[in-house]
Amino acid sequence: MYCTGRIHSGLLVVVAGLALASAGHADETCQSPFMPKIAGQEDVVHIWTLGVEGWGDGSDKLVTIGANPARPDYGQVVSSVSVGGRHEAHHGGLTDDRRHLWVGGLDDSMIYIFDVASDPLHPRLVQTIDDFVEKTGGVVGPHGFYALPGRMLISALSNAADRGGRTALVEYANDGRFIRTIWMPAGAEYGYDARVNAHLNRMLTSSFTGHANYMRDLGELLGDAESMKNFGTTMVVWDFHARKPLQILEVPGTPLEIRWALDPTHEYAFTSTALTSKLWGVFRKEDGSFEAVELADIGNPADVPLPVDISLSADDTTLFVDSFMDGMTRVFDVSDPRAPRLIHERKIGAQVNMVSQSWDGKRVYYTSSLLAGWDGTGGDDEQYLRVFTWDGKELAPTFEVDFRAAKLGRPHIMRFGQIDFWGEPAPASPTHAPTAAR
């Protein structure tokens, strides 16, 4: 896979994924091959956060935390920007030029666009899209935000007609103009994640469930046998340029996050299934088609640990897998992608959701929130950012921020930034101190 990269000097270069991996630098392991790549220590981490009534202003907000140990704002909350109200803050993504961060609300389908380039320490809300459902022809629940050249690809979860799982992919221009809606194909109507392998001209999409399910209390949902039937069990292989579905793969148990390998000779991707707690691989066959292969258990599937997020290292050798219900992260050696080996596991918290690796692979970030009605299902609704170093063998804690104590809300998606990528802003003015990591 090839990644378009704009390095600090401003020179536009095209860097092969293999060269990027061997250098040990990646941007959440190249989640979009069309984004500029930067190397070295991240300075900040931007966290899209779900508001909680009685915590501060109670609104969803973008929280920026210092992440560079060489700076005085390390481990501290530098700024936060509220959007007003609670919209089920969930996922977000940077544009292909890294200047803007798009984030969405799964409940009312609001989209907020932040300028994170003018001053990475103090992002500004510059645009709000409040007519997503109308413009898209009834798509509900903007979930994934994935950078394409000059536009944003949004994978959604539901529809306005019945709030069920039938959904679509949606494209917007970077300036916020709606471009088109691409409904998921018959037989694979559910959606969740969308990831592109530019080298192969292939896109993979995965599946989850609709608004009627994801906005419910998790304990109540798990006890409703009929509603539990309304979860996706498919992945779709697309011709990316044509946006044409080519294959529907059966992946029982609801496949969520997708991670393509970076090395252009590694023609495969990984996913995990939330309901059956399995690690799966999607492998290209000799005839150019793909097959989905069950690879390993994630914890004890009988306990329903609920795998939620995965992160693949830049050299394609190490896969981090988080499971929400038991608060565990498990690290697999995937050097042989068809035979993963568990090499490390650690309890991050009472619950854990997102995992993001730093660009050099030496630091790993975790946040705690999944959905408002699902958090705290195990009893302890702790909300945090926890950061660890990774030496290839084990995780060692560095710092954490207690979002409950700081009254900031429920932290979810993370995106990194570098202060001097677009120019040095004013010095930081931290407002909260970190606590020692556990």
Name its key features.
about 450 residues, mainly beta, Methylamine Dehydrogenase, Chain H, 5-stranded antiparallel β-sheet, 4-stranded antiparallel β-sheet, 4 helices, about 5% helix, disordered N terminus, disordered C terminus
Describe the structure in your own words:
A 5-stranded antiparallel beta sheet has the order 26-27-28-29-31, with no helix packed on it. It has a 4-stranded antiparallel beta sheet with strand order 5-4-3-30, with no helix packed on it. The protein is built from 4 helices and 31 strands. The chain is globular. 5% of the residues lie in helices and 43% in strands. It starts with a strand and ends with a strand. It has one domain: Methylamine Dehydrogenase, Chain H, CATH 2.130.10.10. It has helices spanning 17-23, 132-136, 211-214, 218-222; strands spanning 2-6, 12-16, 44-50, 61-66, 77-82, 89-94, 100-105, 111-115, 124-129, 139-148, 151-159, 168-173, 178-183, 194-197, 202-205, 234-239, 244-250, 255-260, 268-273, 278-284, 290-297, 307-312, 318-323, 328-333, 341-347, 355-357, 363-367, 384-390, 395-402, 410-417, 435-436. It has 438 residues and is mainly β.
Name the helicity range. Answer: under 10%
The whole-number mean of residue pLDDT values reads 90
Total beta strand runs: 31
Radius of gyration: 20 Å
Q: Total number of helical segments?
A: 4
What class do helices, strands and sheet pairing give? mainly beta
Uncertain runs with pLDDT below 50, 5 residues or more? 1-27, 425-438
Question: Could you write a compact summary of the structure shown?
Answer:
This protein is mainly beta.
